Amino acid sequence: MLIEVAEPVRVAVGRLGEFEFPAGLYCYTGSAVRNFEARVRRHLSPVKKMHWHIDYLLAAPGVRIREVRRLAQAECAVNRNTAGGIPVPGFGASDCHAGCGSHLKRVES
């Protein structure tokens, strides 16, 4: 998922804490192996219970999903092959066993 942050925004990301997200383009890799379309609809919905780290970022003002891609590779493989910096250690990677560090990367400023 490509996410655009129009202007810098400070977001409380559940138990991870509060973080500054500079303006730019971010890539989030999620598993959503089953029920992909339902998961995407949920992420696009403005009304939802905050459950995943990505929910907090997507609810912030000036943040929007620019593009959603369904890829054949596993989320960790996609993440490792995506260039960019890690803005929040552990973001979206609570169940990651591949040592990604984060499943959110800032790919463009």
Note down, in words, how this protein is organized.
By secondary structure, this protein is of the alpha+beta class. It has one domain (2-108). The protein contains three helices and six strands. Strands 5-1-4-6 form a four-stranded antiparallel beta sheet. Strands 2-3 form a two-stranded antiparallel sheet. A hairpin with a 3-residue loop joins strand 2 (9-13) and strand 3 (17-21). The relative contact order is 0.27. The model has no long low-confidence stretch (mean pLDDT 90).
In brief, what are we looking at here?
The chain is an alpha+beta fold and 109 residues long.
Blueprint (SSEs and pairs):
Blueprint: E1 2-5, E2 9-13, E3 17-21, E4 24-28, H1 36-44, H2 53-58, E5 63-67, H3 75-80, E6 104-108
Antiparallel strand pairs: 1-4, 1-5, 2-3, 4-6
Biggest sheet, open or closed, and with what strands and sense?
A: 4 strands, antiparallel
- Radius of gyration, rounded? 13 Å
Give the uncertain stretches in residue-range form: none
Number of strand segments: 6
In whole angstroms, how far apart are the ends? 16 Å
Shape descriptor: globular
How would you classify the helix and strand content by structural class? alpha+beta
